[in-house]
Amino acid sequence: MPIRRLCVIILLVPALLWATPVDFDSQDFDKVAELIGPQSDKLAMVHAANQGLSVLPDHWMVAPNALDLSPCEPIYGAVQRRRSIPLQPYSMLQLSDPSYPPRKKSDAWKGLSESGRKTEALRLQKLQSDCSAKFSESWKSLSFTSMDLDRVLGLAQSNCASKEDCISRMYLEAADSLARHSDQNAELIDAIGSAKALAKSQSALRTSGLLLHWQDHRATFVGTDRPEQWPDVDLRAGDLVLQLDAKPFTGRPDQLMELLQTNAKFISLDTFRPSDLRFRTIQWPTRRLAEEEVSLLRWQDSRLLLITIHSFRFGNEFPATIIENRYGALIRNSEPGRLLLDLRSNVGGPLDSAKDCVELFLDPEILYATVAGDKPDKLRTTSIPLVNQDLPLVVLIDANTSGTAELMAAALRDYRNAILIGFPTAGNGAITQQKPLPGTGSQYILRQTLGYLKMGAGYSLSEPLPPDFAFHSETGTLVPLRSSESARPASDTAGPAGPNTGAGNNGKVSVGSSQRRNSYLQLLQKNLKNLRYNSEQPGSPLLQLGIQSLQILVQK
């Protein structure tokens, strides 16, 4: 059954409930499967099962940075014999990368010496080889159905039943994987992806009715709560509908708008008015920004260039290509005097796409990061930047800025004097790739963790990247973070194992560049009292504060 209308319902609750998890259970998962249609692809089923298992506690896997072999022969064998699926370490074939100790201690590694870990890694490598050989002989005769998927998820649920958020995330991951490996319905994938982002976000947001199938004026909810009434508008394909509990935010529209802007990627607040808070609930449709994942515009006095990158993965064009094509036209008559880059809610994407974007801003021959792993990959700029290096740059980040988006923000901070404003990022520095499993005719996929991002300054992106100035929602102002990671020059933080070897800038920031960034920080700290959100001005609070910060920097 094709999807013609799809919406996401978002319910906002008081800040005291900021840790409330997303409510997504087996019935919601079944409804997602119904929206996809009849599903007989065993590979999609196995991916969904493995994704559901991925949120189990540490003792169910060998190591978080393991190689994930899908589908897993021991699971298949158990299904063929109709026995209980042995959800134990190794039976899921989570194979450890021998070059890395686990990021978190697990039962499989406890008490092992360095030589013991190497022995264990070799044993796991042999297990992988043996399993691959079995696949090449027997994969055609294996089967995995929706009943088998239910059995796997049921067993997983019984092992995390004490944590509702674990169950919710398990079914969310499974639903996302099922959609991605079946009909590839873009709207459904986007909607589940938004729900996953909200599930991980530590904010005052709670989803209620994650998906809405809208067809022939009939609504089918994936979730339990139904809105009291619909707005008097025509719902279109791809709309989002926001359900808002406004009572806790009476008299605090600034805080409300910042929560929405920070956590809901596709929400446009053009139609929002603070006076609407007199109602108990507010609902209005917002248009998806699918065709505007990358936008460039001259703001107000035209001296400011605002560049927004919502994602590094979409369509046939990379963000860097779109920026290059539009940048020339925007500066034809006059070059901007300052730059504002918005990476909020950018959950990352392909490493190559992010590298191309970094190239637009940094001088050539800068070794700005490495992918630390068995085969380290040095990330070095190679071309003349598109953007003028002398222009002040502010980058907006939030809790949903993740992966390669964090890489770009960190690189611009360390090597382009960028000032980071917003909230600490997600702290997801893993780089993965997928490739066909040998001997299976490309029918089975091996997802491999290549390594983890490490900046040229010596720090890892496995931890959240702090902003230089955090947004204080109660006062609508910026607060400086006294974090060594956000204040010190990159050249002073390079560790002995960092990537600061080789030609060019060697991953180090020049003295002049470091001094310029420090002067920017000092100037903004002196003028923080002049930076304040104004609800009567256009733009979200963070956008306004970013613009005001740049105005101070150009007056230097």
The mean pLDDT is: 63
Structural class comes to alpha+beta
User: Can you tell me the CATH superfamily of the largest domain?
Assistant: 2-enoyl-CoA Hydratase, Chain A, domain 1
| Share in β-strands | 15-25%
CATH architecture of the largest domain: Alpha-Beta Complex
Euclidean distance between termini CA atoms? 60 Å
Q: Provide the helix percentage.
A: 25-40%
Question: In the residues, how many domains can be counted?
Answer: 3
Largest sheet: 7 strands, mixed
Count of helical stretches:
14
Key terms:
about 550 residues, 2-enoyl-CoA Hydratase, Chain A, domain 1, seven-stranded mixed beta sheet, about 20% strand, disordered N terminus
Detailed description of the structure:
The protein is of the alpha+beta class. It has 14 helices and 20 strands. The protein has helices at 26-36, 42-53, 73-80, 114-138, 146-158, 164-180, 186-200, 253-263, 319-330, 351-359, 404-415, 484-487, 511-526, 541-554; strands at 6-7, 9-12, 67-70, 94-95, 205-207, 211-215, 218-222, 240-245, 281-286, 294-299, 304-309, 338-342, 367-372, 377-380, 393-397, 419-422, 430-436, 445-455, 469-472, 477-480. The strands form four sheets. The chain has a seven-stranded mixed β-sheet, with helices on both faces. Helix 2 packs parallel to helix 5 (146-158), helix 9 runs parallel beside helix 10 (351-359) and helix 10 (351-359) runs parallel beside helix 11 (404-415). The radius of gyration is 24 Å and the shape is globular. The termini are far apart.
